[in-house]
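Protein record

Derive tokens from sequence
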Amino acid sequence: MSATDDDFSGYRRNGVRRPPPATQRGAADWVRRNLFSSPLNVALTLGCLILVIWAAPPLIRFFLLDAVWSGTDRDACVKSAASGACWAFVRAWFSYFIYGFYPAGERWRVDLFFAALALGLAWLGWLRSPRRSLGAIYFFVVLPLLSFALLHGAPPIGLAVVPTALWGGILVTMVVATVGIVVSLPLGTLLALARRSKIPLVRWIAVALIEFVRGVPLITVLFMASVMLPLFVPEKFAPDKLIRALVGVALFASAYMAEVVRGGLAAVPAGQYQAARALGLGYWQTTGLVVLPQALRVTLPNIVSIFIGLFKDTTLVFVVGIFDFLGTVETARGDPLWAAPNTTITGYAFAAAFYFACCYGMSRYAYGVERRLARSRGAVKRPG
């Protein structure tokens, strides 16, 4: 009997087509293969289990069971017999942690910005979303203009101007991180292409910029942007502190992104360039349609690592006088009304949970995209 395509997609018994056998072997087999497959794995598993048993109960008691959830000042937390985490402190300062000193009557604009940002991320992040090309236009063109009008203000349409000095908290963290991520990828790609250029002047300028920025810490770049940037424009056009920080963060992330993308470009086989030339494609067509998609796919894990590091590095803007989320926590814990050891620990724990949730979400999304791309590359097209 000759084999057919259906014979390879399942198996037949008594003339009835059956589904292929399941590949999952159950939880017990997974535990045996991943946790107890060798003496070293057994030792590591038992060591981690002992560590969890030792550390988990005190943490659960402090942050949940013995925690104080309501109160108006530090007395509710200090005088409590339990003396656990003071979540009443987080509740009292929660609005400040999100909006900073943004006027209370205008905070609906910040909420609308968060909703617009979430829509753009979902539209681009969902690989099966309809009209993703329109989603890219919305995210890279419409969203920046909409965000500026909402957050800064637009008097012609009735939105009062809110100075950036009043911005703070999670609002500033998301603005800095989003601007850095959105700007660093295209600018870093251009720098990577310039560094590989055959024009000496273009290549030297790209190399000098990349190596100079990568050779100093981010805090130095922020100080230079804060102090030196106003020297290049007239005094009345000098940008405020937040704009200076955004420029510094974007340049810093772009320099690192350029090296990541350059590694991806070097990994593309030379045959891809030759095939594109044989089809009559020009330089920019070859780069945009053939080379960059493959290079970015190869470097996706490193690109996500840059994004995660950038998101955590937004905390450094507090050093140049900008109150991001961690800066608002630092300010709030210094309030004499709430000054207590457990309020400080609770504030830092709340900040750690926020950063962990955001960074872990980005890493898991990138892992899912990697697996999807790996399946698409490994799929074998059946003869039709």
The chain has one domain: 98-378. DSSP finds 16 helices and two strands in the chain. The longest strand covers residues 11-13.
